[in-house]
Amino acid sequence: MAQKINPINGWIHVQPEKKETVTKGGIIIPEPxxxxxxxxxxxxxxxNVEEVKEGDSVLYLQNTGLEQEDxxxxxxxxxxxxxxx
Length: 85
Hints:
Blueprint lengths: L10 E6 L22 E7 L11 E4 L5 E2 L5 E4 L3 E5 L1
Antiparallel strand pairs: 1-2, 1-5, 2-3, 3-6, 4-5
């Protein structure tokens, strides 16, 4: 079972949005070729993070953050570009 992550200071815990594995034309994209989505849902926010809260949808810089074993990300709040919604 995955351990609960409680970020500190300027970090947030994000569940990335799942990307489509089949294109509109029906082509199946193999997993290693898929890029990580730059959108996700905030699972937890650390201390001193006032811009977002748990449950917010966010857009963040591509290829940033620390990927966890369960596929979630730890991101610095500076890497969040926008709150969606």
